[in-house]
Automatic annotation (TrEMBL), chain B:
The name this protein goes by in its record: ER lumen protein-retaining receptor
Pfam families the UniProt entry points to: ER_lumen_recept (PF00810)
UniProt gene name: LOC102215457
Organism in which the protein naturally occurs: Pundamilia nyererei
Top-rank taxon: Eukaryota
Record's subcellular location: Cytoplasmic vesicle, COPI-coated vesicle membrane; Endoplasmic reticulum membrane; Golgi apparatus membrane
Keyword presence, Cell inner membrane: no
Annotated coiled-coil segments of the chain: none
Record keyword Nucleotide-binding present: no
Lineage: Eukaryota, Metazoa, Chordata, Craniata, Vertebrata
Keyword terms: Cytoplasmic vesicle, Endoplasmic reticulum, ER-Golgi transport, Membrane, Protein transport, Receptor, Transmembrane, Transmembrane helix, Transport
Length: 10, 212
């Protein structure tokens, strides 16, 4: 899902 | 990855290294809030639980390991190795007033009511206020060592750069995460008066001292 994308941030 | 996020991560890494070296080289944690460092260790622990379940990149994994390692090493130096130099009297911020509301909020406002997501949300909210014990301690002692102000500047700058990163990602990738953005704005705003003192005093070679 789109929000999961930001989990690539520290 | 974009330039704002990269410089943000490097600024964060610099802050963590500066603090660790300051304590290690001076063999003293005077003026450092151990409570803030415990909160940061908690932030990294609850945020990086996916360290072993999802691989994003070598950079991502390495940085997470470095952050967690340095955070716990710093807590160890403060509360064990150089415990005698820990200024507990001035490090008196009641962290339960931070952890409890942040814990409640992360259960109420999150993207997904799953353990990993709630812990990630908890870490985002907690990080935005984790520096308060340190800022409170400086207001109580009325001063801060110059190296400590450089640590705080890098730490404050990192999330400010992340705000630009989120603007960049919204514009170019159409992604944004309201929880991270709101917490990041709060976190950066908390540094504003410190930023003002840092620019007007420390950068002019003066010592950072607050009107007691």
């Amino acid at each position: 899902d789109e929000e999961g994308k930001l989990k690539d941030e520290l | 990855m974009n330039i704002f996020r990269l410089t943000g991560d490097l600024s964060h890494l610099a802050a963590i290294i500066i603090l660790l070296l300051k304590i290690w080289k001076s063999r003293s944690c005077a003026g450092i809030s151990g409570k803030s460092q415990i909160l940061f260790a908690l932030v990294f622990t609850t945020r990086y639980l996916d360290l072993f379940t999802s691989f994003i990149s070598l950079y991502n994994t390495c940085m997470k390991l470095i952050y967690i390692g340095c955070a716990y090493a710093t807590v160890y130096l403060i509360y064990a190795k150089f415990r005698a130099t820990y200024d507990g009297n001035h490090d008196s911020f009641r962290v339960e007033f931070l952890v409890v509301p942040v814990g409640g909020l992360s259960v109420l406002i999150n993207h997904d009511f799953s353990p990993l997501e709630i812990l990630w949300t908890f870490s985002i909210y907690l990080e935005s206020v984790a520096i308060l014990p340190q800022l409170f301690m400086i207001s109580k002692t009325g001063e801060a060592e110059t190296i400590t102000t450089h640590y705080l500047f890098c730490l404050g700058l990192y999330r400010a750069l992340y705000l630009f990163n989120w603007i960049w990602r919204f514009y170019f990738e159409g992604f944004f995460d309201m929880i991270a953005i709101v917490a990041g704005v709060v976190q950066t705003v908390l540094y504003c008066d410190f930023f003002y003192l840092y620019v007007t005093k420390v950068l002019k070679g003066k010592k950072l001292s607050l009107p007691a």
